[in-house]
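Here comes a specimen:
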Amino acid sequence: MAFLFQSLALRMVKGMNPLSLPEKHVIQFHTGKTPERRVLSGYKVFNLFRRSAGKPFYCHAPPAATARCSAGYLLTDIFLATQKRSRQSTGGMILRLSSNPQRGLVFAASCAFALALSYFSIRNAYAAYAAGLQTAAGYERATRLEPADPRNWYLLGRYWQYNLEDADASRAIRAYRSALELNPGSSDIWLDLATVCESEGDLAAARSAFRQAKKVYPLSAEVSWRYGNFLLRQGELESASTEMRLAVQADPKRAAEAFSRSLRAGSNFENTLDRILPPITEAYVDVISDQAADRHTGNALKVWDRLASLHPRMNLRDSFSLVDALMAEKRIAEAGRVWDQAVLFAGLADLQGPSGSVLWDGGFESGISGGGFSWSFPEISRSVQVGTNMEEKHSGNRSLRLAFDGKSNVNFSGVCHFVPVRPSSRYHFSGWVRTKMLTTDQGIRFQLHSLGTQDASTVSSPDVHGTQPWTPIDLPWSSGKNVQEMQVCVVRTPSEEADSRIQGIAWVDDVALVPDPAEHPKP
């Protein structure tokens, strides 16, 4: 038997996986006659005993039970090995057994060992089943069946801590401490122990448990987050900010919540901005979006200015929330400034287009739409297919394509663009339109709307229909006295003809709004 366990130790030290043993081993029974070959697998023999315990053992076994299973595979192969190897054998330990009593003794020992493993397998499977019931009795039974498994104690502790109908903090603490005796390196157990201790008013024990969690897993965002919130509740703002910053650094998506909690705890805005946010663009964007959504637009703008000082690389869409919030409050000049900075940070300042145009991306080159000072497209447009096209364009790589299906006399105005402008100023609008078999007398045209004042005047360009090559559209436009924003839309107005259902294709490209260089603001 000593030889068997030495062989087992040697095989495991060499790093061989007991579960990948050769499936076929040859057993030769010497009877004094021509040797009779019988192929029998140690794997199959042990698998017979494993199946007797049921599949749950294999699925839910803890490391100790898995080790017992692995040893069973190996020892069964060793017990069934014989004096010679067959040509079919691929390796394994050879134990010379020349007499029937020796073979019988080894076989009996292997059967006893397999039965013992089956017992442990069944016990482990029953413990897993009991824990799966998610009841107090089930968790208690699991700890009695597998007292060396820290997870059973941990699950029992969580039951007593978080069960709303049957909570018992003292029992939870005892269960957590039993789990930690078996696995002191689990930050999750330390965190839950700290939480339940705090709920019981034992702040010293809670602080000690949080510090142990930090010691076990110092880089964990969850550990820093929960410890920071604990310190925040104790009024230790500076220490709490340090932990919150570590949490945000590890997980930037926590930035908005960390920022708002710090402000609610009494920290002033500048200190919160300095202490909570690491120089990570994603963290700043998270805070800006959250503050803008809560209508704290002034705070969001301050955070943006701090981000802009870092000269980040960012996605232009990340500025939508702030720009849209500023536009909703009619702070158009500030919205325009933020947009221009965001375009620069996104690397989209050099899009091809007429020089000096205040209408961004008039050539539809960026592929960005839906917010800020970009194009907006309808999500669903009945009878019209709207999208960009790379095959037909006036310049650059793309154009806007509108395809009408001929089923209705559609009133279309779904493609629009907000533009910041100066009050009491003159501009020159231009664009290019191409059409192919576009029916009815009402084709594609541009409409320019003044926004934000009582003077909501609209200027329309001539329409283009039929089949036309790229056709230039030029139109003068003047802003009113208090107008800081206008809107350009691509439209098709309904026809009054008998056959008014429009069919065909139109392309639009190189739309621009350029201030008159000779214009001075009107008095």
User: Anything to note?
Assistant: Confidence is low (pLDDT under 50) at residues 1-92. Residues 100-132 form the longest helix (33 residues). The CA atoms of residues 34 and 448 lie 104 Å apart.
